[in-house]
Amino acid sequence: MPYFTSDDTSIYYESRGEGPVLIFVSPPGLGCAAFEQQHPLADDFQVVTFDPRGNGRSERGNISENIIEQWTEDIYALASHLQAGQVTLCGYSYGGLPSQLFAYRYPEKTAALIMISSFPRVRTWMLAGKFRLGIWSTYENLIGTIGKALAFSHTSDQEQQKRIDWNIENSSPDVLERMYQNGRSQDNRSLLPAITCPVMTIFGTNDVFVKKNQHDFRTYLPGMHNVHIQGKAHQLPTRAAEEMNAIIRKFVAESQSASSSQPAEST
Prior knowledge:
Distance between the termini: 45 Å
CATH class: Alpha Beta
Number of helices: 9
Protein name: AB hydrolase superfamily protein YvaM
Number of strands: 8
Strand order of the largest sheet: 1-2-4-3-5-6-7-8
GO molecular function: triacylglycerol lipase activity
CATH topology: Rossmann fold
Domain AB hydrolase-1: 39-154
Keywords: Hydrolase
Pfam families: Abhydrolase_1
């Protein structure tokens, strides 16, 4: 199984296809299993997924006080391991937080930023409740129950449900707790105006968790692309895979075309 090393920690990843690199960043616990429906993108891209440190098959390592910042450095280590000049980050839900920080911190490595059902801060009471539930499950030893609930909400494919459930059950409870605790207090709004790469957000019109965060993105990233998938809720990578994959394919192609058509800087 392929691993890369970040800060002396072995982190599991999967890579398919060749071409421009797409790195998909999952919410806590889900890891690679969340993005199985994105494998067809490997016809046009190098599709990379990974289990964050302390999640699934990845080692726990030393967990820093701010795990979102540490997660960002892990993504940088992954991009370096892949020998990728630039990557397009696809941050799903909570995975958008380290993705936004990466685009801010490493503009030279970021070809584009795609945020899927994501947010720059916990703004709605529904999302805050989801974070509280995640923290509570680690206290009460209910990760297995939460894993089954998340697996069921993401897909009707029983084999994929088992993989998602396994990934969550095999994640370190203290790491998941730190992820949720840090996520509750993280606020990336001040970073967004400094992000220079092409940016797209994708939301389901029925998403009760993060729909209101579109206002934050419009305010702080006025030049971004915003796409809605009608009739869909939060779990777009699994429940709206065809539509989402087509949107990503089109956006990356247009971003590459715009980048290549810009005149070179004079020296």
